[in-house]
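To whoever is on call:

I kicked off a structure prediction for a single chain this morning and the downstream step that reads the tokens threw a length-mismatch warning. I double-checked the sequence; it's 200 residues and nothing unusual in it as far as I can see. Pasting both halves so you can look.
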Amino acid sequence: MVWLIRLLFLDIPLVVRGALWRLCLWLQGGGMGPGARVYGGARIIQFSRGATIEIGPHFRCLRLTTIHTLTREGRIVIGENSHIAEGVIISSGLRIEIGRDALIGPQSMIVDTNHNYGDRTVRIGAQGLACRPIKIGPDVWTGGHVNILPGVTVGQGAIIGAGSVVTKDVPPFAIVVGVPAKVIAFRPGGNEVVPASGKH
């Protein structure tokens, strides 16, 4: 397995790299659909036996992105035709689901895990992990440098502005920005954008 992962970091044709990543995930109990494109420097790794990564067809993953599981319970499911930009980190100790046709902007972080820290007499790194699932619906677009925190659900067709930190659920077709992210508008059925009403 180690030789296969090392081979994936060489300068090899894109089609060959995609086939090798499919083989690598299959050997680890996961899977990747046909037509996937994984560019150089990207890493897709199941660190624990029992964890799984399932990626749909026509997935695109750009350079220097890391997609990995942290625990045996970790599971990552990415829908077909999703696009993950450069430098993204997707890290799961429980479950992260990204729907089909999602666009995840560069340098974003989607992590379903926090450290426990309740006991001041024990160092934080020795107190274990607290995991809550993340679900990102289909056709969601996140700008660059977005952080999506544990326990969040992002509804279908939502847009998350660059630099936002998403701490709460995002309604379908909402446009959210800020730290923490707040709804500023909704996408209607047509081409117009409707401002959000009331205080948020």
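Update from on-call: the warning came from a stale cache, not from the record. Cleared it. Sanity check on the structure: Residues 14-27 form the longest helix (14 residues).
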